[in-house]
Amino acid sequence: xxxxxxxxxxxxxxxxxxxxxxxxxxxxxxxxxxxxxxxxxxxxxxxxxxxxxxxxxxxxxxxxxxxxxxxxxxxxxxxxxxxxxxxxxxxxxxxxxxxxxxxxxxxxxxxxxxxxxxxxxxxxxxxxxxxxxxxxxxxxxxxxxxxxxxxxxxxxxxxxxxxxxxxxxxxxxxxxxxxxxxxxxxxxxxxxxxxxxxxxxxxxxxxxxxxxxxxxxxxxxxxxxxxxxxxxxxxxxxxxxxxxxxxxxxxxxxxxxxxxxxxxxxxxxxxxxxxxxx
Length: 278
Ligand SMILES: [Zn+2]
Ligand SMILES: [Zn+2]
What we know:
Elements: E1 5-8, E2 11-17, E3 26-34, E4 37-41, H1 48-63, E5 67-72, H2 78-81, H3 84-91, E6 95-97, H4 99-105, E7 113-114, E8 120-121, E9 126-130, E10 139-143, E11 148-152, H5 171-183, E12 188-191, H6 200-224, H7 232-239, H8 248-264, E13 268-271, E14 274-277
Parallel strand pairs: 4-5, 5-6, 6-7, 11-12
Antiparallel strand pairs: 1-2, 2-3, 3-4, 8-9, 9-10, 10-11, 13-14
Helix pairs in contact: 5-6, 6-7, 6-8, 7-8
């Protein structure tokens, strides 16, 4: 039985186990094919067995007469690039990513071709969109005519998207890019983790609403402490009281991302380790 499954016109998915953030346990690799030429998006697996499965599936296509044009990285995270070097060694096709991704991967993965917003693949059939926020170099791939969007880690069907300022995460950018993708009409959204999302624009808008609801709680948590100001731990305790304390260390990073957004928008200020409402 093949593990490869068709998920949209011209797109097939191979989901393989990766060292990703629980509850997700796998990352999707997408094969995008037009007229017997193809790209591999997200050479994800780093474990030997899964990497072998990806190489085997790619070799099978090449053996059947299809030409591999390149391997595209949506961003630099370890659960997305584990097989990048192995794929290049095996097949020689260029590894392609945004320059910010390339900069972050230096010494780990060599990027041969830089991609940017508005670049196209297959003579324009597939378009690249630069969507920073989760990662500075994050790219999505869109086929407007066939209405699908390979969304990387902008959204997920399994697990949550972490916005970590220590790793280039930026909540303002992230929310702005979610809106942009929704406004441009996403069609079927193909995330890096989990199943395809049929009404992609609705899910993107839901993500925006969810983040803004959390932001309101963060703002309220800061206001609660008035002039004394709130520490990040206090913000997490009050703004994430509906989540299990086990995830608070991760929530802390998202809380910081919300705090930085609110500060950038002039709603709060920071003094030492305290965040203060204006
Ligand atoms: Zn990621
Ligand atoms: Zn991921």
